[in-house]
Predict the structure.
Amino acid sequence: MKWMRKDLLALSDLTAEEILFILDTAEGFKDVGRRRLKKVPSLRGKTLVNLFVEASTRTRTSFELAAVRLSADVVNITAGASSLSKGESLKDTAKNLEALAADLIVLRHSAAGASQFLAERLHAGVINAGDGSHEHPTQGLLDVFTIRERLGRIEGVKVGIVGDIRFSRVARSDIQALIKLGAEVTLIGPPTLVPREFGRLGVRLTDRLDDVLGELDVVNLLRIQHERQKAGYFPGTGEYASLFGLNAARAARLKEGALVMHPGPIHRGVELDGSVADGPRSVILDQVTNGLAVRMAVLYLCGSVPLKEEE
Amino acid sequence: MTDEHAGRRLLDAEGVASAEKRLVDGLRREFRGGEEVFLAGIPTRGVTLANRLARALGDEGVACGLGMVDISMHRDDLGMREGVSVLRGTELPLDLDRWTVVLIDDVQHTGRTARAAIEAVLGFGRPRRILYAVLADRGGHELPVRPDVTGVALEVGDRVRVSVRLMEIDGKEGIFES
């Protein structure tokens, strides 16, 4: 196949073939990180705007480094420092960026659908770097990339996603990628944070981590999204940690070779104990390294598709 | 492969074999004694040719390393082509600085592929030297890049598309106009 999309908005839009195409492309870009010259000229002369209307350090840095390694020029705009804080609409901000001839816009926004809104209105390529509780497609891609790299396959792999599924865009993107590639997904957490509707996607739901822990090949722990929760969805972090936290005792019951993942930032001692995060099963730093390769692949692919002329 | 190259045959299997022979002889003349030689094919058919040349040179007592150079990330026409193709991967020696790298392609046309390949190799290190060998030089150069060794020079019009077909990939052997 050939890659034909200028935007990456949601993994729910992509076919399994497209997802695998990105993963294969990312393998090539992971090699670039091992070269003496860690830079290729693919996006030379193109301008990428990191438009982060919601705070983020690791994702923004990862996209920035990815763009730099592809030789693009990068401009970073964060909400507090832009006219967005003066009430300018997202569309106006974006139109202004386009008037400055931005070729790619990486958008992080608190509203679900924000990246699609831009993509439908702009000629520039739009990459969703997280839109509210909707999707975070590059995180989903780097998670399946890491699983494939470590376990050699995705099909048939048993993945448990633990925690705040309701408010997690990471969970939504992970579920899309994993299901399309044939993994068996179990969502684990307090019923208030694991909406029953997810069952329709073909995943299993449970509120008992200890019952399923021993059968999982991958445990992906999510952070409680306090910033998105307006009501109390669980009694407290202490109780949450005792029921759903991956501590040393639980980690000892994991299968031989099982992987521990976390999208970061980690709340040590809540969803994940420090000893497990730093332990031999943890692939958390692989996720960071692979995130760079995956984002290079996405920027390379979307940035290399010819943009349509003004109609 | 569909038969989109139903056009005129420029060279038959025998012609390809003698072009290959000229490549082998030409490369042997280029190599200085004591040089460590690495043949790097440019996908797709350059890789097949590199395989053949490595075997032929090996038969004559010249041992060569064998790998490939993917030029996708170094193309100068990204954003001008419909769709993006999958990466093929690059295989070069880790200690590149010791080696003489021979870039191998099936057809030399504009020279843009060779330029991208040179840049790709230099991203990995600083080889002792880079040579460039093509089975067929069809003219139409757009950059000051010329092969060091050529199997055959073809005289064709600027707009003609020249396709090399190799048994291992295409199930037939020859050079065609299409």
Notes: The beta strands of chain B are 9-11, 36-41, 64-68, 99-108, 129-137, 149-153, 162-165, 174-177. The interface with chain A takes residues 70, 72-75, 78-87, 89-90, 119-120, 122-125 of chain B (CB under 8 Å). The two ends of chain B are 14 Å apart (CA to CA).
